C-alpha cells in the first residue's frame, strides 16, 4: 500500500464542475441497496473549459452511467479506488449513475449503514462518496430531491431532508416517499433514515408567524425519553431568534435517535441524526450532566442550521468557521438557561485539561490547519473548543452590539454560500471598525500561549505596574511563533478593603474591571491612583485561552478566593491554591517523606462550608479539587501514582478535618421533590454529592450508610450513579458488589444505562481493574462495533483511570493497542480517536515512554487506515 498523502489548504481551487440539482432514488436493501443519481452539472465559471469530470466515490459498484441520456462506452470513463473520471463532458449536462452499496457491511458508520435494523446515513465529512459518485466537497451546493423506496413492513418510516412531496405503494410489499429540499446544500448535509420508528410531535411558531412541525423519531421503547430534548429544541429555536435574529426555514424539523453513531449528533438539513446518548433522557436513566449535555447538543445542531448550513464552509480547513462559532453559540445558550458561572467553570476546566493537552502533544494543530491526511481526525477540541474561545474573544473585543451587527452581516452577505474564516472575521472588523489583522494569528498558530506576569506596587506614588510577557511554545511544523493579540480582563483587589479598586490606565478611568490588550511580546501597564496595595485578579472569566503564570503567594490566593468579585476567578484562585498544596504532596510522595496537609487549604474549605453561599452550584465547584488529569497537566513529568496519592490525601485530610460540615451540607441539601433538571435542584444535588464524596474518601460509616441509602432510594440517576460510583470505588466490596449486580440486572435492557454501568466499574482505582475491563469486553452488552460501548469501556478506562491505564507493566497500554488494531479494520474514525492516550508518551517517565512507543510501533506495523496512520505517524515522528 502507498502511504496516504496530505492535502494542503494552499492547493484550494474551486471545483471544475458544480452541481445545481441532485435527484436521488434509493432502493433499500441491507446487502444490496441501489442508488440512482441524476446530477445537473455545469462547468464552474472560474475554471477552464474541457477539464475531465472527476467525482469522488468509494466502495461503490457502478451499474450504469449515462450523460444526457446516452450510456457511456467503457473507454469514456475510468473507475478507481477513490472515484470516477469521465474524460470528456459538455459545458452543462445531466449525469445519470446507478451504483450498488452494502449498508450491512458498513461498520465504519460513514455513508449509508444500519443501526439496530434501521437504515441511516452519516455524510460529514466525506461519507456521501460512499453513497454515490459526487463532487463530495462543501463548496458544491445543490438542491436535492430524494426518493426512498423500502419494505413497507420493515421500514414503515422513510425520511430525508426537506419536505415530503409524494408517497405511494409499490409492488412486492414496497413503498416510497419523495422528499424535496429547496435549500441548496453541500453533500455532507444529506441524510436518509428508514426503519420502524415512532414519533413524538410538537409545534413551533417562528417569529414571523410560520408554523413548524417538530418531530422526534425514536425506537418504541424510548418514547418516554424525549420530553427534555423537545423542550430544549423549542428553547433553542426561540433563543436563536432573540439572540441572533435567526428563524427556522422549513416546514419541518426532525431529529432521529440512533444507537450506533461515531459522534454526538449531526446537523443534516431538516433531519438531524443523533447518537441516542445525546438525545434520550429520563430521570431514572440520565444524570443531570446528561440532561445538560442533551440540551447543549440539541441546541448546537439546531444552531448549525444557520452557522453551518445556510452559510457553510468553503473547504474542510475552514471547519472551525462553523464549529467554533456554533460551540460559542451553544455555550451562550446553555449559560443563559443554567448557571452561567458554573457553565463557564465546567467548560474551562475541561478545556484546560483536554485542549491544552492536545495543543501540547504531537497532534497539535492550528484552529485552521493548513494540511491534513484524513479530515475525520480534525474534529478536535482545538477546532471546536479553541475555535469557540476565539469567537468569544472576538465578541468581547468588538462588544456585544458590534458582534451582533457583524453576525447579521455575515448571515446576510453569505447566505447560500460556502465561505472562509476570513469572511467571518472581516464582517466583525467591518461592523466594529476594528483592525483584526493580528487577531487572525489565533487561527494560524497552534500551541497554548503562556503569559508570564508580575506586578509591583509603588506605595509612595500610588501606582501599580503590571508587566506581561507572552510566548507560544513550538509545535510540530511551527518552530517560531509571533506575538498574538491577547485580551486580558482584570481587576485589582485592594488588600485592605477586599474590594475591586478603581482602575486608571494612561489617565483614563476604566471602572473596576477592564480589558487590557497584550499585543507585543512584552508590555507594561501602569495603573495610577491605586490607593492600597492590590492583588491582581487576572484573566477574569478566562478571557483568552492561555496559561497565565503569576507569582501568587498562598495568602494571595486564599484572599482572592474569598474576595474576588469575579466568580470564575474566585474558583480559579481556589484551584491554584489547591494545586500548590498538591505540588508539595506530590514531591513528598516521590521522596518518601511524610505528607503534611497545608492548613490554608483546610481553612479555605472551612470558610466556604461555613459561609453558606447562596450560589450552591458555584459552591459545589469550589469544593471540587482539580482532577487528576488537570494536576497532571501542570506537572513537568507526570507521575500518576504520586498524583493519585496526593489528591487522595488532600480529600481524606479535608474529610477528617471537616467531617461534620460535610455531613451538615449533605443533610441540608437532600430533598425528595420529584426530579427536574432545573438549576436549583441540580445545584443542590451536586453540592450534596460533593459532600458525600468527601465522606466516602475516608469510608466514614455514616457516609457509607448514606451512600447505600441514596443508591437504594433510587430517586434519580444522578444520585444513584454517584452513590454507586462511590461504593464501587471504595474498598467495601461487600456493599458495592451486590449493588453493582442489581443495577446491571435492572438495566440490562437499556444500552445507555449499561454504558454507565461499564464506566463506573472501569474507573475504579484498585489494581484489579484491568482484569475487569478484559472480562467486561466479553459481556453480552458489550460490542466493539458500537462506538458508545467502546467509549464507555475502553475509552473511559484509558482516559479516566490514570493509575491503572499507566500500570508500570504496560498491560493497560497493551490492552488499548489491541483494541485499536481490531477497530482499525472495523471503524477507523473511532480507532484513531481511541489511540490518543498513547500519543502522549512524552509526558511520562522513560520506562513508560518505551512501553507506550512500543505499542504505537506495534500498531504501525499493521495495515492501517489513513485515520490511524496519520495519528500514529505524528505520535512517532
Ligand atoms: N458536525 C457535527 C459533528 C459530526 C462530525 C462528523 C460526524 O461523522 C462521524 C458526525 C458528526 C457537529 O458538530 O455536531
Ligand atoms: Zn457542530
From TrEMBL:
Residues 229-440 form the Peptidase M1 membrane alanine aminopeptidase domain. Its cofactor is Zn(2+). Residues 447-550 form the Peptidase M1 alanyl aminopeptidase Ig-like fold domain. Pfam families: DUF3458 (PF11940), DUF3458_C (PF17432), Peptidase_M1 (PF01433), Peptidase_M1_N (PF17900). Keywords: Aminopeptidase, Hydrolase, Metal-binding, Metalloprotease, Protease, Zinc. The keyword Metal-binding applies. Its EC number is 3.4.11.2. Residues 24-189 form the Aminopeptidase N-like N-terminal domain. The keyword Cytoplasm does not apply. It catalyses: Release of an N-terminal amino acid, Xaa-|-Yaa- from a peptide, amide or arylamide. Xaa is preferably Ala, but may be most amino acids including Pro (slow action). When a terminal hydrophobic residue is followed by a prolyl residue, the two may be released as an intact Xaa-Pro dipeptide. InterPro entries: Aminopeptidase_N-like_N, Aminopeptidase_N-like_N_sf, PepN_Ig-like_sf, Peptidase_M1, Peptidase_M1_dom, Peptidase_M1_pepN, Peptidase_M1_pepN_C, Peptidase_M1_pepN_C_sf. GO terms for biological process: proteolysis. PANTHER family: PUROMYCIN-SENSITIVE AMINOPEPTIDASE. Aminopeptidase N is involved in the degradation of intracellular peptides generated by protein breakdown during normal growth as well as in response to nutrient starvation. This is Aminopeptidase N. It comes from Halomonas ventosae. The lineage of its organism: Bacteria, Pseudomonadati, Pseudomonadota, Gammaproteobacteria, Oceanospirillales.
